[in-house]
Amino acid sequence: MEYNWFFPPHEGVRLSDLADQIGATLEDKSSADRLARSVAPVYRAKEGDICYMLSRKSRDELETCQATAIVCDKTIAPLVPSHIPVLLTAHPHTAFALAGTYLHEAAMRPSRNLSQAGISAAAVIDPQARLEPNVEVEPMAVIGAGAEIGEGTRIGAGVVIGPGVRIGRDCTISAGASILCALVGNNVIIHPGARIGQDGFGYAPGPKGGMIKIVQIGRVIIQDNVEIGAGTTIDRGTMDDTVIGEGTKIDNQVQIGHNVRIGRHCGIVSQVGIAGSTIVGDGVMIGGAAAVNGHIKIGDRAQIAAMSGVASDVPPNERYGGIPARPMRDFLRDVAEITARMHNRQKKSGGNNE
Q: What global pTM score does this model have?
C-alpha cells in the first residue's frame, strides 16, 4: 500500500520498548533496537511494520512477509521465518491492539477537521451554556442553553448539543451528531451522524382510530468509556432512563429503543435493533443484524449470533442463535437436520429441482 498521509507512520519505537508496552516477550534479544513504525497484515508487511497471527491458516502469507516483528503465541511461533523477530504472548489479539494504539494514537478516535483548535467563531453557543477550559468547538456546531461540557472534549462540525445536556471530560463528539436530553460520561466517543436522546417510538390507540403519541420524558445516560458508532440511534426513555453501561462499544447503524438498559463492557455489532425496555446484562455480545424483542432480559456474558431473532429471555453465559433464537447447540442441530433433509430430497429426485 502506498504512503498513507491520513495515518502516517510513527517516528519509531524500539522493539524491546514495544514489547514492554504490550506485555509481550521479544524472543530475539539481538533485534531489540529495530524500530517499529506501523501495523500491517502479514502478507504485505514490510520493514517497520508489526503484524500478528492467530491461526495456522495464515501460514502461506508468511512467504511474502518482511515485517519487523510478528505478534503471536507459542503455537504459531515455530512457523515464523527466522529473519522475523517474534513478540511472544498468550494474548496476541490484545497485544496487537495495544501495539496499534501505541503506534497510531491519532487513529483511535475521530480527528479534528481543522488544524486550529479552540472555539470557532462560526459555532453558535448559548450564553447560558458552560464550557470548561480546553474545550474545542468546530464551525456550525450548536450548543444549547444550560449545556455543560467538560475539559478536553471536542465538539465536531455541525454537532447539535441540546439544552441542559451534560458531557464529561475528554470526549469526542464527531461531525453531525446530535445529543438531546442526555448525560454523557468521561472519555466517550460518538461517531458522525449518531442520534442520541430523541423521543422513542410509543403510541396508544386513538378514540377514533389512528394513534396517539405517548409522551417520552426520560433521559439517556451514557457512562464512561463508551463508544457509539456512526448513524446509531439511542432513544430517550419514556418515563425511566435509557442507559448505556461503562465501557460498552456500539457499532454503526444500531437502534436502541426507549428504556433499554445495557450493562457494562458489552459489544453490539452493526444493524442490531433492541426494542424498548429490554435489559442487557454485563459483558453481552450481540452479532450483526440481530433483532432483540422488547421487555426481555439477556443475562450477563450471553452471546447472540448474527442475524438472530431474540424473542424471549436469554440466560446468563449462554450462546443463542437462529430465528427464533435458541441455544446454539439446538440451532446447529436444527440446521444440520434441515440440510440433511434437503440433501436426501435432492438424491431422491436425481438432483432435478424442476
A: 0.91
Domain ranges of the chain: 13-108
d(CA 165, CA 48): 45
Is 343 tagged catalytic?
no
Q: Which of 10, 104, 258, 265 is catalytic?
A: 258
What are 87's strand-pairing partners? 26, 71
Grid cell at residue 330: 439446538
Q: CATH code for 13-108?
A: 3.40.1390.10
Q: What does each of the 354 residues of the chain score in pLDDT, given as a tens digit? A: 677 889 999 999 999 999 999 999 998 999 999 999 999 999 999 999 999 999 999 899 999 999 999 999 999 999 999 999 999 999 999 999 999 999 999 999 999 888 888 999 999 999 999 999 999 999 999 999 999 999 999 999 999 999 999 999 999 999 999 999 999 999 999 999 999 999 999 999 998 889 999 999 999 999 999 999 999 999 999 999 999 999 999 999 999 999 999 999 999 999 999 999 999 999 999 999 999 999 999 999 999 999 999 999 999 999 999 999 999 999 999 888 888 888 888 887 775 554
On the CB side of 291, CA atoms within 13 Å amount to 6
| Cβ-based burial of 217 (10 A; exposed 0-12, middle 13-18, buried ≥19) | exposed
